[in-house]
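ARCHIVE CARD
CATEGORY: sequence design from structure
SOURCE FIELD: tokenized fold
FIELD CONTENT:
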């Protein structure tokens, strides 16, 4: 999947995220076509691309990264993060 299609997918997922409205990078990877089966799930190969596209969406004001439920700049994020639609964004 190229970056433009991944960006479109991420925007759609952020706009329709259920529950608490947060998405994990692996959820996006599975939706992007990474098969979750097998000893090393295929979505793992997409994580760097997902992170790169998330940084673009963050710069556009569409996405916010969360660490322990609090917003954090992706460039500084370490550990487990989730993505959510930015409060004022129109995804």
């Amino acid at each position: 999947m190229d970056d433009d299609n991944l960006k479109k997918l991420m925007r759609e997922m952020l706009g329709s995220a259920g529950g608490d409205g947060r998405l994990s990078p692996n959820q996006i990877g599975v939706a992007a076509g990474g098969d979750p089966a097998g000893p090393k799930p295929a979505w793992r190969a997409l994580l760097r691309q997902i992170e790169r596209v998330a940084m673009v969406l963050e710069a556009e004001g569409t996405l916010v990264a969360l660490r322990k439920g609090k917003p954090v700049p992706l460039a500084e994020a370490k550990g487990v993060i989730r993505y959510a639609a930015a409060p004022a964004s129109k995804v």
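CARD ANNOTATION: The chain has a mean pLDDT of 87. Residues 47-60 form the longest helix (14 residues).
SHELF: design records, drawer C
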